[in-house]
Design goal:
InterPro entries: ATPase_inh_sub_z, ATPase_inh_sub_z_sf. The chain has about 100 residues and is mostly helical. The chain contains four helices and no strands.
Length: about 100
């Protein structure tokens, strides 16, 4: 029974670690995405930091990436930046790779 219990605890720990890493990667991706959008909107440095945090917060509105994409599209369009959903989704994928590299080494 001890071997089974040890294996079960190890699997639970791995699952917990993987879930935490996924959360951290997504949060980093959203921050990088916010910085990318803030730069495109020509925000001042102090505004860029606040905007990046707002993008991270936007991800908590609903499951998936649609809430972040909707926020970025709306904000970029309101700022007069020519963009489309495909460009935002491409940036999202690029920033995901960048975030994963930064956190996973």
């Amino acid at each position: 029974m001890t071997t089974f219990d040890d294996r079960e605890r190890a699997e639970e720990a791995k699952f917990s670690h993987d879930a935490e890493m996924q959360f951290r990667i997504q949060a980093r991706r959203n921050r990088l995405l916010g910085e990318w959008a803030a730069e495109r909107m020509n925000l001042l440095p102090a505004e860029r930091e606040a905007y990046a945090k707002a993008v991270v917060q936007a991800d908590f509105e609903e499951a998936g990436d649609e809430d972040v994409i909707r926020k970025l599209l709306g904000d970029l369009t309101s700022a007069g930046v020519e963009t489309d959903e495909a460009e935002v989704r491409a940036a999202l994928e690029n920033k995901l790779v960048e975030a994963r590299r930064a956190l996973m080494g």
